[in-house]
Amino acid sequence: MTARGRVSAYVLVADPSYLRESISAYYHYVDRIVLSYDRSATSWTGTPLPLAQCLRIIAEIDVDGKCEHHPGDYARLQEHVFDNETHQRQMALDAASAGADWVLQVDTDEVMLAPDTFFDMLDRAERAGAAGLDYPARWLYSRVGNGRYLETTRRFWRVAAGFPGPLAVRAGTVLRHARQADIDLFRVDFATRNTDPWRPHDAPVHEVIRVADAVAHFSWVRDAAVIRRKFAWSGHSSVLRAPRVLRQWIWRTKHPVLTVLGTPLRRRDHYRAARVPEPPGGVPIAFEFTPEESGPQ
Q1: Cβ atoms within 10 Å, residue 290
Q2: What local confidence, expressed as pLDDT, does residue 122 receive?
Q3: Could you give all domains of the chain from N- to C-terminal order, each with its CATH number?
């Protein structure tokens, strides 16, 4: 028995782009996987989702029968999109907590590049008595070639760790906002001093890993048509709908060298050229909608 005990996971089923790679990376480390999705294949903002395609991919992965379906009604259009997200995550986390000691909350565009390292850090979090594991992600902005990406950094191309919320929490955790919770975290970073530009310089670091062992967050690594859909259903849709954001993404994808060279001149939006082994990654798959799912955009 490992220090961490029994581990389950929940998955918000919505985006097929890196779904196979994401679940496959941790599938053999967990006991159960709760599949949470809106039964009407509708996003938090009311746009259609390719649910049937996602569930077909998961069925192919689930060779050991670990996945449990938990459909619900999460397209509550009268509620704020972040309230919808937090509500769905909490329902999924509650379901995944049954019989578990820890629950993974890894999104489907996040891929563990070194699962053994991740679960070793989870064991250390258990031994430290922490309530959550804050494990660093590399935020990939755009794919510009085979295994080549624009990666978000700090200024002057210094590596940056991203922490959207703890990627593992104790069973029974109460979420405050999206994946975030007011709990004691075991925090892993790329250096002994904090590398997350959104956190204080003196933020604690309990363990250090190699950049190559991070979680790869393929957040905006899509083709332009899929990015437009993602902008529509994202919790950040009120910002991402702006044409300027999309135009910037298209220009930077087409001009990666100029984008990287201009990094020191910008107050924000800093990037470096990065290589990530493929697979995972590669060209994201196209979305496939059933007639019932392909409503007006």
Answers
A1: 12
A2: 98
A3: 7-275 (3.90.550)
